[in-house]
């Protein structure tokens, strides 16, 4: 096993002996897996307090919170190999030949400054603003300086969207993709794309860490994943959070100066966000059970499918089949598929729909963010459900109108109750559009 494969990585002592196959590494360092903080046993990998019931028959405690990444038992050591940044020099790592809008270029300049000064920063940009492209120059600056860069996201689908775009933009740079369903062996590369869970496998490995969709489940309000990000950063590290819907915690951090911030309230093609059309459907669930669609929804669906394909969101997995049958009964000539987080064919179905296969894709919130489909209308059925929070509805609405030639594609919210989340999501989109109009007026 090549020595470089261990750089920046961490294991339990048991895992290391298995992974390294007794390969001698004099740089190995150790730290306690548990520490007592305020008279409580705290795991040093995930930062969680060990629960009283997490106890082995011999009386030793273990951490149940990060058990997926290998069991840590009281008395264990976490072992790691310091990152050495042993990469071949890349003089011009950026091979992307595209251009940024003046607004994107301004945001990209700020990202370069943040990476150069190793600051902590939040970039708030509306869905479809082109956040990924705005990162390119900053990532290129880091790579040209011999730094190691990580781009992380909470969900696999987002990583699968980012990976090919970064591959194309940095064609001469080795890139490693890491997620829970990945079967390819680990490689030591200067640029890593991974889910935030994979950061538990690193310790002080990266000079620049970029976390996309920080307001998304499972990262949002998750202290374990926040700990994973923190530990993956070197002591001197640039840390950049990307979001379209910043949390109260992030806004507070910007206001207090703990984080710097920048905002871009307009899409890359210069058009504003699509504002949702809201329709009350008080008996939608009863209609769907009879494999029927409410007439308003049926007529709008038929109208949209004349010019666009359709992404239809439902609250729960159990709604998928019933809604699919209702759509097929109303429009038997179209192709309708379903997808959800537990679907074993999830990635294949998403790839097929992205490639243009199928007229309607019915989905849960698994596709709320981080995916781009060409020329689609967006329907949300049951928008009153608790899973459709303000930020989720804003992200869902942002799936429409992402290409300049289809910027006016519609978004529809169908609900039995007009919830606070629906109201605030619509208000937030209108507020961003007002900012976008003011920005347009400065040109």
Automatic annotation (TrEMBL):
Record keywords: ATP-binding, DNA-binding, Helicase, Hydrolase, Nucleotide-binding
Domain (Helicase C-terminal): residue spans on this chain: 296-443
Entry annotated with the keyword Nucleotide-binding: yes
Sequence ranges assigned to domain Helicase ATP-binding in this UniProt record: 112-264
Any Pfam family matching the protein: Helicase_C
The keyword Endoplasmic reticulum is annotated on this UniProt entry: no
InterPro entries referenced in this protein's UniProt entry, alphabetically: DEAD/DEAH_box_helicase_dom (IPR011545), Helicase_ATP-bd (IPR014001), Helicase_C-like (IPR001650), P-loop_NTPase (IPR027417)
Record GO terms (molecular function): helicase activity
PANTHER family tied to this protein: COMF OPERON PROTEIN 1, PRIMOSOMAL PROTEIN N
Official protein name in the record: DNA/RNA helicase
Organism, as annotated: Latilactobacillus curvatus
Recorded name of the encoding gene: comFA
């Amino acid at each position: 096993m090549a020595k470089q494969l261990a750089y920046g990585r961490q294991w339990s002592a048991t895992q290391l002996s298995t992974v390294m196959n007794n390969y001698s590494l004099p740089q190995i360092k150790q730290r306690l897996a548990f520490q007592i903080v305020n008279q409580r046993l705290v795991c040093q990998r995930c930062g969680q307090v060990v629960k009283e019931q997490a106890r082995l028959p011999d009386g030793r405690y273990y951490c149940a919170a990060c058990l997926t990444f290998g069991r840590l038992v009281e008395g264990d050591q976490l072992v790691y190999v310091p990152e050495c940044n042993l990469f071949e020099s890349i003089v011009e790592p950026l091979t992307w030949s595209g251009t940024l809008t003046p607004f994107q270029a301004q945001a990209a300049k700020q990202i370069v400054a943040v990476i150069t000064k190793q600051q902590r920063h939040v970039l708030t940009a509306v869905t479809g603003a082109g956040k990924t492209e705005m990162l390119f120059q900053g990532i290129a600056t880091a790579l040209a300086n011999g730094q190691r860069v990580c781009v992380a996201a909470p969900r696999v689908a987002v990583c699968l969207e980012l990976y090919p775009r970064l591959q194309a933009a940095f064609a001469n740079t080795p890139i490693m993709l890491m997620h829970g369903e990945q079967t390819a062996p680990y490689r030591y590369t200067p640029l890593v794309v991974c889910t935030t869970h994979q950061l538990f496998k690193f310790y002080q490995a990266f000079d620049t860490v970029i976390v996309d969709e920080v307001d998304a489940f499972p990262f949002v309000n998750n202290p374990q994943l926040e700990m994973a990000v923190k530990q993956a950063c070197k002591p001197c590290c640039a840390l950049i959070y990307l979001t379209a819907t910043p949390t109260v915690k992030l806004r507070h951090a910007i206001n207090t100066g703990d984080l710097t911030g920048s905002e871009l309230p307009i899409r890359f093609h210069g058009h504003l966000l699509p504002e949702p059309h809201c329709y009350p459907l008080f008996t939608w669930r009863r209609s769907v059970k009879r494999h029927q669609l409410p007439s308003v929804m049926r007529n709008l669906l038929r109208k949209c499918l004349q010019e666009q394909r359709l992404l239809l969101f439902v609250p729960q997995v159990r709604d998928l089949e019933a809604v699919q049958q209702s759509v097929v009964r109303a429009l038997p000539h179209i192709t309708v598929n379903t997808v959800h987080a537990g679907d074993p064919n999830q990635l294949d179905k998403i790839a097929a729909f992205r490639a243009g296969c199928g007229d309607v894709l019915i989905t849960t919130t698994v596709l709320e963010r981080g995916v781009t489909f060409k020329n689609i209308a967006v329907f949300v059925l049951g928008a009153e459900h608790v899973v459709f929070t303000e930020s989720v509805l804003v992200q869902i609405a942002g799936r429409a109108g992402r290409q300049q030639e289809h910027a006016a594609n519609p978004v529809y919210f169908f609900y039995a109750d007009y919830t606070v989340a629906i109201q605030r999501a619509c208000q937030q989109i209108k507020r961003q559009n007002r900012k976008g109009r003011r920005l347009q007026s400065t040109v």
